[in-house]
Design goal:
Layout: E1 2-5, E2 12-15, E3 18-19, E4 25-26, E5 29-33, H1 36-51, H2 58-70, H3 75-93, H4 103-116, H5 121-141, H6 148-152, H7 168-175, H8 181-193, H9 197-201, E6 208-209, E7 214-217, E8 220-224, E9 227-231, E10 240-243, H10 246-257, H11 273-287, H12 296-307, H13 312-319, H14 324-331, H15 338-357
Antiparallel strand pairs: 1-2, 2-5, 3-4, 6-7, 7-10, 8-9
Helix pairs in contact: 2-3, 3-5, 8-10, 8-12, 13-14
Length: about 350
């Protein structure tokens, strides 16, 4: 291995050789390193990929995995992955060689977590998915022969239990116990728009169209490790325009008019999700109404639309779901039995035909 510094540019060039799996000799050259240790780190990573996973611990592989995905996913997704790995996977597998992890070890980990962690089934499922993603990464890039998680099977459940939601009457009781005007307007908007909390926190006044009484959902706000991020919404279909009732527009206009020194391109609701959730739960306690999550205000909106007779297609478009099928998977228990509806239509049709015969 050779590392040389260019006196003119101050950058380092790395040159080395290796043999591939067929024994063929290669002489790669890589330039542009600002520091010598960056070139050395690149060489170590490269040779680890060529040599396979032998000698790499689970911790070492996860570090390589996180470095790889950081450039390919949203900051929020990366933060979630990093948290799962740090809190749930490294404490169990950190110093174990990746090649030595067996299906039985993973099965023991799953059993322990299902019995003792106290986590929800959906959370357990996400932890299992993340563990498998790391093994698949090692199989693809670091010579791990096979994914031991495949034989171990999954844990938890992919589908969450039934969501909770407020009726308009319950919502109004809770809202009356919210004092802060920003919290109150934000919670009001979430209930009557069906927006995700991150979508609402990213809104500016420029996103509202007063002529059309609508709001454009094009951004998502997140706070990650003390830093604020404005990114694209959850999915492409999440970018949408929502038509709002006049009374919601009036409420937003009234709130905006009381903001001192506000600029139209600034965030309208300068709040953190956790603070709003805390005050929302506190208001529910004061109102004597059961607590629900902020996200359940979105479910409350969907429930209200369904009770008003909105079709799955309309609900999907308003909520920003990828398809009406997604909406039906989440809210199927709220929609009336379509088979009963069809039978009723056919019976009414036949009755009209019979009546026409007797005329």
């Amino acid at each position: 291995m050779s590392i040389k510094k260019d006196d003119k540019t101050g950058l380092y060039t790395l040159q080395f050789y290796y043999r591939d799996h067929n024994g063929k000799r290669h002489h790669p050259k890589k330039t542009g390193f600002k520091r010598k240790k960056d070139a050395e780190a690149y060489h170590r990573d490269f040779m680890a990929r060529v040599a396979g996973s032998s000698g790499l611990t689970f911790k070492a592989v996860t570090a390589l995995y996180l470095k790889d995905v950081k450039a390919r996913v949203k900051p929020t997704t990366y933060a979630n992955k990093k948290t799962i790995i740090k809190n749930h996977l490294l404490p169990h597998f950190s110093d174990v060689l990746i090649d030595d992890i067996t299906p039985a070890m993973i099965r023991d980990f799953q059993t322990d977590y299902m019995l003792n962690s106290g986590l929800k089934g959906t959370t357990l499922h996400l932890i299992g998915i993340q563990l498998n993603a790391i093994f698949n990464f090692a199989v693809k890039f670091y010579g791990l022969e096979k994914n031991p998680g495949t034989l171990a099977g999954s844990m938890g459940t992919q589908k969450a239990g039934r969501m909770d939601f407020y009726t308009p009457e319950e919502f109004n009781k809770v809202l009356s116990c919210v004092d802060d005007p920003t919290d109150k307007t934000l919670i009001y908007f979430l209930f009557w728009s069906g927006c995700r909390i991150g979508e609402a926190l990213a809104l500016t006044w420029n996103d509202f169209d007063l002529e059309e009484n609508s709001v454009s959902i094009t951004k998502n706000y997140q706070m990650i490790e003390g830093r604020e991020y404005i990114s694209t919404p959850k999915t492409p279909k999440s970018k949408r325009i929502i038509l709002l009732p006049q009374f919601v527009i009036d409420r937003i206009k009234e709130y905006k008019g009381k903001l001192y020194g506000y600029q139209p391109d600034q965030r309208l609701f300068k709040r953190y999700k956790e603070i709003v959730a805390y005050r929302f739960h506190k208001a529910a306690d004061l109102a004597g109404v059961r607590r629900i999550r902020l996200h359940d205000l979105r479910h409350s909106h969907a429930s209200m639309l369904i009770n008003l007779g909105a079709s799955p297609l309309l609900v999907a478009a308003r909520l920003g779901h990828d398809s009406a099928e997604t909406t039906l998977k989440i809210y199927s228990h709220l929609f009336p039995d379509e088979q009963e509806k069809i039978r009723g239509l056919l019976e009414n049709f036949c009755e009209k035909i019979e009546k026409s015969k007797n005329i």
